[in-house]
Amino acid sequence: MKWLYYTVLLLACCRMSGCGSDKDSVSVLPSDPPAPEEPEYVDPTAGFREVGPYGSMEDMIPDEHPDSEFSQCYYNYFCLCNKSSHTLTVAVSSKWKNICGFLRPETKYTDNFGQEVFGTYRDGPIESFDDIRSIRVIYDKNVSDDPIEADFFHTVSERYLFPSEDDFAGTIGDENEWIFEKFTDRRLRWVYIFTDEDYDRAKAMYDERMANYGSGEK
């Protein structure tokens, strides 16, 4: 009978230790997949030589003023890059300031619509073209001394006035054609990269104006 005694004892030990039960198999939950890495930032203005009098946005950042108890400062940078084979003069006007630059091919011009807000004295960041009043471009002619009063009719040029009900889609007057970057709540940048397509569009408009002008239209 000893064999029966030892068999019963063995079964009892196995039951106590969990032999033959589901406790022998340990389930391991799959680990969470690693978080996707943030894409490396690529500066859209890289490769263009800065010609603005105050340098690039990075050069101007140290001069930004911190917020005070009574006011907030917003820095709206506009960077115009010339990837075309033509020279161009560009002027962008907001409610309070004009910026203007002359660009040779492969150069860029950066300036800042800095705005200090006292209560409701001024609007803050320019996150749409609601605060832009006009954008003017003249090709192959340096009129940076006075681009507002330049002769746009007899030159290869573009001029967009805001607000407007005209369709500016596909042009520099369309904010969707710009690269909008928001770095902080107080610092943002609008970037436009000119190509020969911009010139071809302006040249077609100029040719149409001259043809209509020659036929007696005004």
Automatic annotation (TrEMBL):
It comes from Alistipes inops. This is Lipoprotein. It comes from the Bacteria. Residues 20-40 are annotated as: Disordered.
